[in-house]
Specification:
mainly alpha; globular; binds flavin-adenine dinucleotide
């Protein structure tokens, strides 16, 4: 059971790291896709940080909560500051939508998403992941394109779910790109991470892990945790 928690934390941390490194690259290269990505990451990665600190506290049981046992309670408090001081969730969500409404920024961002699955088709084992990724990309494109025509209240209610969806799609794209890179070298490490990450994203609260999933195999979970 603890392996499930640790592997989930590791994969979410990997997703955040991949996205943050990619955003630094955009900043360095003056790629305007950063105008969409950076506010989206300020919100999503800091939310994941708070979740991660809480999860780490719970993994340690009672010790996790005691402040002189570890720095985790302090980290949890610091994370909530991270969720606020660069702008609250709503404000950052608004920044993402403003950027997506500008055609030049929107096109730059989607060009990046379109580049992540390049060359993926040569690996049949990626077929399901490619289909899923492209389907999400299409939904995101349609949402971004049509957002200006939506009724104001409905539109505002959906800003943060849309940014969550954008973050998940972007991070799937990066896992996919890494998987292609690995498979070219006959290494299936990131293919495993991609499969497990998709299982997390698709797992609803009441859904059980099935025997054909990565999360049913302890050897695979150990590979993720020890990476
Ligand atoms: C430890 C710490 C250090 C800080 N350091 C700095 C610093 O160095 N420099 C600096 O400039 N600031 C700093 N800040 C301030 C920080 O940037 C603000 O706290 C933050 O931007 C939120 O603004 P606020 O506190 O006025 O909240 P408010 O804007 O009053 O927000 C309250 C609630 O209303 C919502 N809300 C507000 N406006 C809207 C809107 N238009 N649409 C939808 N919802 C909305 C928010 O999402 C939030 O839920 C710091 C804050 C903290 C906690």
């Amino acid at each position: 059971m603890v392996a499930k928690n640790l592997a989930t934390m590791k994969l979410k941390q990997m997703a955040a790291t991949l996205c943050v490194f990619q955003s630094w690259r955009y900043v360095q290269e003056k790629n305007i896709a950063e105008d969409v990505l950076v506010p989206a990451l300020k919100y999503t990665v800091s939310v994941h940080g708070s979740w991660m600190a809480r999860e780490a506290i719970l993994v340690l049981g009672g010790n996790g909560i005691i402040m002189d046992f570890s720095i985790l309670p302090r980290l949890m408090n610091d994370n909530i500051i991270n969720e606020t001081w660069e702008g609250t969730h709503n404000i950052l969500g608004d920044h993402v939508m403003k950027a997506l409404r500008r055609p030049k920024l929107r096109d730059a961002f989607f060009r990046e998403l379109d580049s992540f699955d390049a060359g993926a088709e040569q690996f049949p084992q990626l077929e399901a992941a490619i289909r899923y990724y492209r389907d999400r990309k299409q939904q995101l494109k349609e949402y971004a394109r049509d957002s200006g025509s939506k009724e104001k209240n409905l539109f505002e209610m959906n800003i943060l779910p849309m940014v969550d969806f954008l973050y998940e799609t972007f991070s799937i794209g990066l896992f996919l790109r890494e998987a292609v890179c690995d498979l070219r070298k006959n290494d299936d490490t990131f293919f495993l991470f991609l499969q497990a990450y998709l299982e997390i994203l698709n797992r609803k609260a009441d859904q059980m892990v099935s025997a054909d999933q990565v999360f049913s195999r302890m050897d695979k979970l150990e590979k993720i945790i020890n990476y």
